[in-house]
Amino acid sequence: MTLPPAPHPPARLRAQDFILASKQSEIAGLHQLLHTGELVTAVSALVHCLQRERGLSNILLSNRASPSARQLPQAIQDTETALAALHLPLARLDRAHPQAGNLSRLFNRVAGALYALEALPAQREANRAPTASRTASMNCYSDIIARLLGVVFEAADGCGDPAISRALIAMFSVMQGKELAGQERAIGAAGFAAGEMDAAAQQQQLDLIDGQERCIQTFLTFADPASQAAWQAGPGQGNPAFERLRRILCAGRLPPGDDQVQAWFDITTARIDAMKSVEDQLAAALNACCRAALAGAQQALESQQLSLAPPDAGYTVLLAATPGGEAARYSAGELGAPLGRAILDVIQQQAQHLQQLSAELATLRASLSERQQIERAKALLMQHRGLSEPEAHKALRSLAMAQNKKLIEIAHALLAVETVLAAKEDVAR
């Protein structure tokens, strides 16, 4: 009887195999982050075009005879060009084998944004009808933009590199502030075109102004010095003509005539374009940061490969665990002292590198988590007390000041009360 061949013994796994695998995994994640940065840049361009198209659509639906509405066809064409450009960075994202951690939430955000964009052609067609709803149009555009901004936020929330995460948070904040500025442009343009600004619209504009200020404060907290300086030199300077028209809208006393519509639209567009310039600078800094991190990781990998190369094919290194901290956790066996020391050095370097990344990321994610908790608390107040978003924010801030506590502590308390009430309702059922 012929016996089957003996199975080959499994290859011996070495410490350096996993050291290199650790760095290769980091590099794969940075490649994915680079593609994510390119996606964020494309989303930024598309959002900017959609904001302009929304403002011009609002003018059209408020006064179809307005000369400003003639710019709408070109704005629609610009949006379509930006939408086509979005598909390349989307295709570069590795959907089959994501290497940058759990990207399911980012992919879900992308799916939601693409689904919302499918409603755009129908809304454009609806806007052609004489009875088209300005509110429906505004809501459609704003929903699409909000979903696209959600992609940027998820990219920042899921980022595994602190420097890139800071750049993403800064970019998201200025994009969100610019979106609120775009909504203010659209509402103001509609008010001047219609010759009136009701109380609800006036309050909405005040809310948008307050929201812009908060977004810019977050941007200034996380932005690099060059971007902060660009803000102060550009949209941060202020414009007396813009402030005058803004006060007219807030007061509700609107002078008639198309001149005011065009003046408001031109001034607010110049302001938003200046914000877009800062946004572009942030995008360039983000992509440069991604490339620098990737180049540094690749260089470190090459250095580690040289350090861990054995002097001959039959050379084996044994590592044994010993009590103590991270620096003393491994010791080289007797047979491989030179290479063993090299392995220990690389393990320690990689461990320190990962520990530093984890500490910085923990700080950044704590900031994002606090922001999410505060937003949830505001939504709770808006739901149960009928407040607007800025009113809910002011209520939280007033409670914090009255009780001498941080805003996040008040938010946690409100959310805890909501949890208790929800649990009691479940028991009652």
Protein model, in words:
The chain is built from 13 helices and two strands. It has a two-stranded antiparallel ribbon. The chain folds into two domains: 29-296; 341-429, Orthogonal Bundle (Arc Repressor Mutant, subunit A), CATH 1.10.10. The N and C termini lie far apart (73 Å). It has 429 residues and is mainly α. Helix content is 76%, strand content 1%. Helix 1 runs antiparallel to helix 5 (134-157), helix 5 (134-157) packs antiparallel against helix 6 and helix 11 (337-385) packs across helix 13. Residues 347-374 form a coiled coil.
Strands, total number:
2
Number of separate domains:
2
Strand order, main sheet: write it out. 1-2
Order of helices and strands: HHHHHHHHHHEEHHH
Helical coverage, percent range: over 70%
